[in-house]
C-alpha cells in the first residue's frame, strides 16, 4: 500500500509538471527525490521499488522531451542506484533489528511464563549493579516480600544467616553476588532467612552467572527453594528414627531376656523369629520327645492335653492363630517315658497388616511346670490343714454346746465366753469347709446329689435365716415365681448364702438387700442386689478367681479369704448354669445365676 502511494505521488508530480509546462519538463531526479526521501523515512525496505518506479518516470519524461539529457540520465541512474543500494542495506539492517527485538520480546515472555510456573523463587539481577531485572511470585512467597532495592544479596536487601553459627551474610557472601563477581556457580547452599512477617525459614540457594557472546558476565540468576518444611520433616524423621531405634533396642532387650518363649511365624507357618527362651524351650521339648530341634513347630505337635489327647499340628495355638483365632492359656503336657513332666501354657494371636489381612502369628509360651507344682502343693496343704482343723474344731464346739445346754452349770460371764467360742468355731468351720470344697473342686471330686428343688422356697429359707444375723439390713424377696430345678439342695443353698453374705458384708451402712427369682425362657434366674460399696471396674474381670479379694488393702476390706464367689460360680457351672454380675463403684452390685429348669435338658457336671 505504501509503495503504491509513493508511486502515485511521483506520477502526480510528473503529471502536474507536464500539464503546466510541457515544453519545460524537468529531468527525472526532481521527480524522484521526494518519493525516495519519503520511502526512506516511511518504509526503508521499499526504497528499491520506488527507485525503479521513479526511473521509469524519468524514461517517460525523456520520451516526451527528447532534449539532450544523456548526462542527466547517466547521473540519475548512478545516483538512484547508489541511493537505492544504501536504502536497501539500511532496510535489511532495520528489518533484522526489528526481528531481533521481536524475538527478544518473545523469549522474555517465554522466560517470564516459565518463571511464573516454577515452584522455586527465581531472581535475575544485572551485573555489576545487582539491580533486579526479573523475578517470580514464588520468590515473594518464600521471602514474604518483593525483591528489595537496591539488591537481593544482603546489605540493604534480604537478611540471611549462616545455619552453622547464625552469622549474618555480608553482601559479597550471597551466592548471587559471588556468581556475578567470580562467574562461578553456587549449588544448594542452605541459608536461613527472615521473611517479611518476621518468621524464619531455610532456603536451598543456587546461583550462576549469565554471559554474553564474548563471555562477559552481564547478569546473574539465583534460584531459592524453600526447604523449611523439608528440614523440619527431616529433623522430625531423625527424632522419630532415634526414638524408634531406642524403642527397638529396648524391645530387643526385653525380647532377649523374657523367660517366656516367643515364636513368630509368617502366613505359611514358617518360624521367622524365636527369642532365646523359645529356642531353649524348643530344644527341651524336642529332647523330651526324641525329635530334632530343627523340627520347628512340629516338635510341639507331639505334646498332649492335660486329659491325655494328642495336640496335633492343626491344633497348635499359633496355627489356630493363623486361621484368625485368638488363643488364651492353652495348656499342653510333655510326658517322656521315665522323664520329668513339662507343662506349657500358650497364648497366641494373628498378626494383621493395615488392610486387616493375616500376615503371620505370634505365640507366647510359658513353662508352668513349677507353678502347677506349687499349686498342687498349696492345694494339698490346704486340704490337709482343713482336715486337721476339723477334728479339734468339732471337739471345741461340742464341749461348748454341752456346757451351754446345762442350766446353771456355768456363770453368766463364762456363758458369754462360751457363746463367743461357739460362734468362733462356727466361723472357722465355715472357712474349713470352704477350703475343703476348693480342694474337691480342683481335684474334680465334688459330688452333687441332685433332686427336684423348689428354688423360690430355698431363697425364702435363706432370707429368713440370714435376717437373724444381719439386723442392720432389710433382706427381702421382691419377686418370687414358683420354679423347680434339678440340683443339689445343699450346694445351691451354699451359693445363695455366699451371695447374701457378700451383699451384707459390703453394705456396711445397712440398707435393703433385694432377692428375686424369675423364669426367663428355659432358665430360672436368681438375683441378689445390694446398695453398698460396689466393685472397682478394673478389678471386676478377676472377681471369680480363687483367693482374689477385690477390696484388699482398701478402706472397704471387711475380711474373707476370697473363695466364696469362686465356689459359688463353680457349683453353678456344675449344675449346667452360669453366673454373672453388674456393679458400679459406690452404688452397689447385683449378682445373678441362672439354672436350667427341670426337664429342660440339664447338662449335669458331676466331677
Description:
The chain is α+β, with helices and mostly antiparallel strands. The chain folds into 5 domains: 2-96, no CATH class; 118-226, Beta-Lactamase (2-Layer Sandwich), CATH 3.30.450.20; 258-365, PAS domain (Beta-Lactamase), CATH 3.30.450.20; 373-442, Helix Hairpins (Orthogonal Bundle); 450-596, Heat Shock Protein 90. It contains 15 helices and 18 strands. The strands form 4 sheets. The chain has a 6-stranded antiparallel sheet with strand order 2-1-6-5-4-3. Strands 8-7-11-10-9 form a 5-stranded antiparallel sheet, sandwiched between helices. Helix 1 packs antiparallel against helix 2. The radius of gyration is 55 Å and the shape is elongated.
The number of helices is 15
Q: Strand order within the widest sheet?
A: 2-1-6-5-4-3
> How many domain modules?
5
What is the CATH C level class of the largest domain, in words?
A: Alpha Beta
* Amino-to-carboxy terminus distance: 123 Å
* Oligomer designation: single chain
Instruction: Estimate the helix proportion, in percent.
Output: 40-55%
Q: What integer value in Å does the Rg equal?
A: 55 Å
* CATH topology title of the largest domain: Heat Shock Protein 90
Strand content: 15-25%
Overall body shape? elongated
* Level-2 CATH architecture of the largest domain: 2-Layer Sandwich
Number of beta-strand segments: 18
List low-confidence stretches. Answer: 23-28, 601-607
Mean pLDDT value: 78
Tell me the name of the CATH homologous superfamily of the largest domain.
Histidine kinase-like ATPase, C-terminal domain
Q: Look at the helices and sheets and give the structural class.
A: alpha+beta
Largest sheet properties: 6 strands, antiparallel
Amino acid at each position: 500500500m505504501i509503495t503504491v502511494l509513493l508511486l502515485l505521488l511521483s506520477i502526480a508530480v510528473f503529471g502536474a509538471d507536464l500539464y503546466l509546462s510541457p515544453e519545460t519538463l524537468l529531468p527525472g531526479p526532481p521527480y524522484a527525490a521526494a518519493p525516495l526521501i519519503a520511502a526512506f523515512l516511511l518504509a526503508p525496505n521499499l526504497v528499491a521499488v520506488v527507485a525503479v518506479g521513479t526511473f521509469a518516470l524519468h524514461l517517460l519524461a525523456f520520451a516526451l522531451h527528447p532534449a539532450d539529457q544523456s548526462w542527466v540520465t547517466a547521473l540519475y541512474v548512478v545516483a538512484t542506484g547508489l541511493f537505492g543500494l544504501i536504502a536497501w542495506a539500511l532496510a535489511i539492517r532495520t528489518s533484522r533489528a526489528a526481528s531481533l527485538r521481536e524475538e527478544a520480546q518473545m523469549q522474555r515472555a517465554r522466560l517470564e511464563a516459565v518463571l511464573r510456573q516454577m515452584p522455586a523463587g527465581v531472581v535475575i539481577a544485572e551485573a555489576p549493579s545487582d539491580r533486579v531485572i526479573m523475578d517470580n511470585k514464588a520468590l515473594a512467597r518464600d521471602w514474604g516480600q518483593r525483591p528489595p532495592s537496591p539488591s537481593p544479596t544482603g546489605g540493604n536487601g534480604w537478611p540471611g544467616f549462616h545455619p552453622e553459627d547464625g552469622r549474618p551474610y555480608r553482601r559479597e557472601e550471597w551466592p548471587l553476588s559471588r556468581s556475578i563477581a567470580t562467574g562461578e556457580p553456587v549449588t544448594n547452599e542452605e541459608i536461613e532467612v527472615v521473611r517479611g512477617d518476621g518468621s524464619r525459614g531455610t532456603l536451598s540457594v543456587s546461583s550462576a552467572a549469565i554471559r554474553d557472546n564474548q563471555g562477559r558476565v552481564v547478569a546473574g540468576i539465583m534460584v531459592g527453594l524453600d526447604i523449611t518444611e523439608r528440614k523440619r520433616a527431616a529433623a522430625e524423621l531423625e527424632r522419630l528414627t532415634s526414638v524408634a531405634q531406642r524403642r527397638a533396642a529396648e524391645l530387643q532387650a526385653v525380647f532377649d531376656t523374657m523367660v517366656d518363649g516367643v515364636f513368630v511365624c509368617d502366613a505359611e507357618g514358617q518360624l521367622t523369629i524365636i527369642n532365646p527362651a523359645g529356642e531353649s524351650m524348643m530344644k527341651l521339648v524336642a529332647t523330651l520327645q526324641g525329635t530334632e530341634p530343627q523340627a520347628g513347630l512340629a516338635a510341639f505337635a507331639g505334646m498332649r492335653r492335660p486329659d491325655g489327647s494328642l495336640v496335633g499340628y492343626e491344633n497348635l495355638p499359633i496355627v489356630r492363630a493363623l486361621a484368625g483365632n485368638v488363643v488364651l492359656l492353652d495348656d499342653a503336657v510333655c510326658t517322656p517315658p521315665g522323664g520329668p513332666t513339662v507343662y506349657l501354657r500358650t497364648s497366641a494371636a494373628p498378626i494383621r497388616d493395615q488392610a486387616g489381612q493375616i500376615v503371620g502369628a505370634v505365640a507366647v509360651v510359658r513353662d508352668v511346670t513349677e507353678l502347677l507344682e506349687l499349686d498342687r502343693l498349696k492345694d494339698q496343704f490346704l486340704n490337709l490343714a482343713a482336715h486337721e482343723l476339723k477334728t479339734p474344731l468339732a471337739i471345741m464346739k461340742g464341749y461348748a454346746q454341752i456346757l451351754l445346754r446345762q442350766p446353771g452349770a456355768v456363770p453368766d460371764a463364762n456363758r458369754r465366753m462360751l457363746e463367743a467360742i461357739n460362734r468362733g468355731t462356727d466361723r472357722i468351720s465355715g472357712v474349713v469347709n470352704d477350703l475343703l470344697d476348693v480342694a474337691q473342686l480342683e481335684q474334680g471330686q465334688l459330688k452333687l446329689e441332685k433332686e427336684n428343688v423348689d428354688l423360690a422356697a430355698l431363697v425364702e429359707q435363706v432370707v429368713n435365716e440370714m435376717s437373724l444375723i444381719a439386723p442392720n439390713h432389710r433382706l427381702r424377696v421382691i419377686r418370687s415365681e414358683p420354679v423347680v430345678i434339678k440340683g443339689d439342695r445343699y450346694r445351691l443353698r451354699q451359693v445363695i448364702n455366699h451371695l447374701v453374705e457378700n451383699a451384707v458384708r459390703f453394705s456396711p451402712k445397712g440398707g435393703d438387700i433385694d432377692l428375686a427369682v424369675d423364669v426367663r425362657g428355659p432358665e430360672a434366674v436368681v438375683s441378689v442386689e445390694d446398695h453398698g460399696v460396689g466393685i472397682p471396674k478394673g478389678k471386676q474381670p478377676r472377681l471369680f478367681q480363687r483367693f482374689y479379694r477385690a477390696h484388699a488393702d482398701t478402706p472397704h476390706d471387711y475380711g474373707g479369704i476370697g473363695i466364696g464367689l469362686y465356689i459359688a460360680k463353680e457349683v453353678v457351672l456344675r449344675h449346667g448354669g452360669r453366673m454373672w454380675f453388674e456393679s458400679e463403684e459406690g452404688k452397689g452390685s447385683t449378682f445373678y445365676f441362672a439354672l436350667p429348669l427341670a426337664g429342660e435338658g440339664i447338662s449335669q457336671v458331676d466331677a
